[in-house]
Amino acid sequence: MNGFEPTKYVLETVATGRCFEDAGWTLADPQCQEPSLVRAIYAKKQLAFGPETRGIYQFADWMPVRRMLKGSAPTITYRSEKLAARLKLPNLHIAFSGWWPEIGAAMSTCSFKETEAYSVCARIPDGEKRVLVVASAGNTARAFAKVCSENNIPLLLSVPEENIDALWFEKPLNDCVKLVCSPRGTDYFDAIALGDAACSSPRFFAEGGAKNVARRDGMATTVLSAAKVLQRIPEAYFQAIGSGTGTIAAWEANLRLIEDGRFGSHKMKLFPSQNVPFLPMYDAWKAGSRALLPMDDEKARLQALEIDAKVLSNRRPPYSVKGGVYDALCDAGGDIECATNADIAAMQQLFLDTEGIDIHPAAAVALQGMINAFEAGKLPRDSVALLNVTGGGQARFQREHKCHYLKPSLIGNASDPGIVEKIEKLFR
Fold first, then answer.
1. What fold characterizes domain 76-111+214-398?
2. How far apart are CA 270 and CA 313, in angstroms?
3. What is the DSSP letter of 384?
4. DSSP state of 177
5. What is the pLDDT of residue 3?
6. CA dist list (Å): 158 to 85, 169, 377, 422
7. In 3-state terms, what secondary structure has residue 103?
8. CA 253, CA 219: separation in Å to the nearest integer?
9. Is the pTM of this model over 0.90?
10. Alpha-carbon distance 96 to 99, whole Å?
11. How much is the average pLDDT of 173-180?
12. Of the candidates 144, 17, 174, 162, which has an alpha carbon nearest to the alpha carbon of residue 69?
């Protein structure tokens, strides 16, 4: 887009405080001897909101991007009335990511994963010849496929075959996007392994997940959207978590807003939620443990297959790493909540009845988690609360549009003989 000047920033290692230049796609500090996230430190300490016509890039002062890609839409924050009245939460605000034209929400994938995709893809260095690899349980893949297809960016998606119903699109995809799947009966962990196998070839490079500052700072625009509307930092933040990257991003946005100086000096309490029975971070946090508790792989796989919010099934989340979920909760305060599959159905119906739009299972987990926290007295009921509805409007969108589904080009496991060569051939 015309008139765009990339923001200046350096990277800081959370564990050591060392600052250094971004080499282009830096995911970790090579000089750090312990697992640690790196964080973008922006030259502009006060956020200048850009024109709304820029979509998500209205927040580009605090995004490590080199360009603006076409087609982005921001999260929309609004003050709830009917849901707030039903729950007796007078200061409830909703950050909605999805399809809801009446309030200006225009994410055609119906998921806030678009915030990640538009940020990460805009960080890719000029002249990059390798193929970007993204492993996903569903929504992230849909978002990256849309962005890469519309902007002609080569992309390899790795998704469990169980979850490919999530790969629906408004229009057929550009041939630059390819899908490989781990077989039925496998989960997100297996899809990650398959993507990692592809990245053993020099023809591919990993998106990086939580380690990618562009992913976290794209997600952080949800909180920046709220700050723009509320003109203050919320007192409490609620979101469902699979990796917990969104919660880390919210915490980091909060720290930047404090440094900005115009939105308050407090830290909002963080209340991420998980879907019963898949509770690795919930269990560790309740046990007071920085490390995830030992998990039997087969039991974890079966639990991941059992939950309705499939996107919350990350078995190796950035919980323990310096700057991760554990540190965010210790610094900001809060708790981890949980919700059952039955809760999900009830919360989806509650949101539809009160706010008038359908929401994804993960967003329903966040809603139940919020209710749990307030009912347990962890917050005053008049707290300025921000509920991150990470996906919504999908049922409506699919009623109103003819959808196209992406089919896998290859199904296999990371351990299959010759799997990397087979993946390479997809891009010849």
1. Rossmann fold (3.40.50)
2. 20
3. -
4. E
5. 65
6. 42, 17, 42, 14
7. helix
8. 9
9. yes
10. 9
11. 96
12. 144
